[in-house]
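Methods — Computational structure assignment.
A single polypeptide chain was analysed. Its primary sequence is given first, followed by the predicted tertiary structure written as C-alpha cells.
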Amino acid sequence: MDTEQRDRSHLFTVRLWLEPVGVQEREVRGEVRHVLSGDTCSFRCLSGLTMWLSAYCDEEEEEENM
C-alpha cells in the first residue's frame, strides 16, 4: 500500500447484535465508530451502516479537496 492510499484509508470498529422485536423476531442493531476521530453512529439495519460509512468517507474526501 503506497503512502497516498494509506492517507485516504479509514479505520472503523463495528459492533453488531440481534435485538428481539417480537415473540419470534429479531432485528440487526449496531454501532460503528471511526477510530481516530471517535465519531459514532448507531443503526437498526445494515443499510444504515453502509449509508453512514459512505457519507463519512465522502465528507472526508471533500474536506481534503478544499
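Note: The longest strand covers residues 12-20.
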